[in-house]
Amino acid sequence: MSEVLLGSILSAMSTGAGALLILFMRGTLTHRLRDNLLAFTAGIMMAASLLSLIPESLASGGYIQLVVGIFFGVLILTLLEKNIPHIDIDHAIKGIEFDEKALLIITAITLHNIPEGLSVGVSYASDTEGTGNLIAFAIGLQNAPEGLLVALFLVNQRISKFKAFIVATLTGAIEIITALLGFYLTSYIGFLVSYGLAFAAGAMLFIVYKELIPESHGDGNERTSTYSFIVGLLFMILLLNM
């Protein structure tokens, strides 16, 4: 219990760690750095899904459970993606009041973090030691640049840097609750473990292919982003084999 709580807190607070950079930035985040960070994170999450979550789902259940879990992971992310707005720092609408655009974005990010928290919690319910920590690490890395982007957006809406940091940090707090929910559900209802691991894999693969890779390739930095993706992949493989 203490391990999943600590892991979920660290993963969730990574959003704040990323947002913390806004307090020290004088300009904006360069396209190249942002794209490379997103691609590196994509490599981390791809390796975690293919080399940890999917094999463990197959081992604890079977192919049918894997397919069903991945299907629901993708379905939930698809529904969220269709029904909540997407952050676009460069095309942020200027002059819209905080209580309209900014609150919509805050709500969107908070909802996006729900399946990520579930992924962390389910991973801690796995029989394989260390899986929870690895997935919490992977999700945490994804949360850091996300937190920075949220803070940047809020600053663009004329919110003070400190308030932007606080709000961006709080958007990650939902992951603590959903991680504990995922952990308890799969711990006490054993047959859900295989489905849960596959759900986490499906959600992460959706984020990688639908969000992170396209966003890292949209500003002419495809080559360096590709290198960053491979480095992230190899880095996670190293962690999995330590």
UniProtKB/TrEMBL annotation:
Keywords in alphabetical order: Membrane, Transmembrane, Transmembrane helix
Pfam families, A to Z: Zip
Places the protein is found: Membrane
Membrane topology per record: Multi-pass membrane protein
InterPro entries noted in UniProt: ZIP (IPR003689)
TM segment ranges: 6-25, 37-54, 60-80, 134-155, 162-185, 191-212, 224-241
Superkingdom in the source lineage: Bacteria
Annotated protein name in UniProt: ZIP family zinc transporter
